[in-house]
Design goal:
Distance between the termini: 29 Å
Oligomer: single chain
Low-confidence stretches: none
Mean pLDDT: 93
Shape: elongated
Order of helices and strands: HHHH
Structural class: mainly alpha
Strand content: under 5%
Number of strands: 0
């Protein structure tokens, strides 16, 4: 079975990635996120509660900010 993506699917994934990246930056600004990350000793549940986002969103943001090694 062929699991390769067609051109439309590739474009859709790019758009979804960009939308998620924008949302993460909007909902969890870097300066505030990093400050609270250290204030809460990296407690991702507290960060998720503070920002009103999912735990997965917090993990992804922390990863892209270089605060954790994997999602």
């Amino acid at each position: 079975e062929d699991y390769s993506l067609n051109e439309f699917e590739v474009e859709q994934r790019k758009i979804e990635y960009e939308a998620n990246d924008f949302a993460g930056k909007l909902l969890m600004p870097e300066y505030r996120f990093v400050d609270l990350y250290f204030k809460y000793s990296g407690n991702k549940n507290k960060l998720a509660d503070f920002f009103g986002v999912s735990l997965e969103a917090v993990k992804t943001r922390a990863f892209f900010l270089g605060l954790i090694d994997n999602v």
